[in-house]
Amino acid sequence: MELPFAESYKIKMVEPIWKSTREQREEWIKKANYNLFNLRSEQVFIDLLTDSGTGSMSQNQWAAIMTGDESYAGSSSYYHLKDAIKNILGFDYFLPTHQGRAAENVLFSVLVKEGDVVPGNSHFDTTKGHIEYRKASAVDCTIDEAFDTESLHPFKGNIDLEKLEAVYSTHPAGQISMVIVTVTCNTSGGQPVSMQNLRDVHALSQKYGIKVVFDSARFAENAWFIQQREDEYRNSTIKEIVAEMFSYADAMTMSSKKDGMVNIGGFIAMKDEELLKQASVFNIMFEGFNTYGGMAGRDMNALAVGLDEVTTGYYLENRIQQVAYLGNKLIEWGIPVQKPIGGHAVFVDAKKFLGHVPKEEYIAQTLAIELYLEAGVRGVEVGTLLADRDPKTRENRYPKLEMLRLAIPRRTYTNNHMDVVAVALKNIFDRREEIDHGYRIKKEAPIMRHFSVELEHAEKVHKK
After folding, report:
1. Which of 201, 247, 266, 359 has its CA 20 to 30 A from that of 333?
2. Catalytic annotation on 258?
């Protein structure tokens, strides 16, 4: 008999979490204006809002924290991180920042100007926000298969080369800041980009003289899928795959709170010393001196260890297995999800789940609220609220996909927790026809509104 799968770690410390009643959750979510970001952490039983900075660090990372060098300039921790970035990712130059959106802010301050066009594969919220804040345009060039949740295309994060060349050929090179390749592609469901696609995008971009920048928050998960799904890489190590992946990038941004496996931090890495010099001006203004940026020495030490650990097969197998465990349970029960299951999260197709709720009433947000009320599970909407308004018309943008993202923190929850999530969704799915209305906006910010939006139940609005 074949031995069952078991995690390659054991638990050394536990943190209590508390269950609540439905009545309590109804009161809490109402006070939070039906915005899950406004809930207190103790009001949540299983928190799948994000996998960003919410994972558990290893004993070696905790040990590295204790030897962090907090010198303002020239910290040894900076050089430990510099060596890890060079040895694992292949970049000669880097700047530490406090998190991924800070890295985008610094880099885009150099590269993006008003009127620019920035193509990519389904830019995520902060990426698009930083582009549009600068009065530039983000153009989605993702392959069409990404928007068919039933398609089993192995690399739904891929960029459509014809769409990309259409952008390149219809705009002067000086108007195209860069192409951004997000690995894995969060917005399309944590879907990977193939090595062949990375190679082709790089070649096409070189032809037109366009910089290639990777949004690398989940680069190691992307490497795992390349190893599993591209025959050429079956016998390659994760570190070998990662090295080749980044050989096709001119620069990268990183939210280290994901595949850096730390609770805070980020960085920009680049191959061009001149770009380093230009970005350093903004890094010093926004983040801090170049050898610490927005990070403490202890966190840079932990990140250096994390980059090494995340690029090992034993860690990634555990990671991907747990996400697949939840996804496969939902599939067994007929719950519509983005297939195949991605790297960091399960994405529930809210349009198919609650297709009778009007799109104007924020379908994915409605499902997210129902899941919280059912079991105290906090997910996040990746749909119309996140898509924001068109910066010119100020009308809602309705994306092709309305998703409830269940992002699983690294090495944090057991499969028993995943069972709770699955059963809660099954309970809602069985009574989905009873959910007649969604929500309306009471108050919103002009950009990246989903973080602070205030909502009210649409049924009550109709009755006024």
Report:
1. 359
2. yes
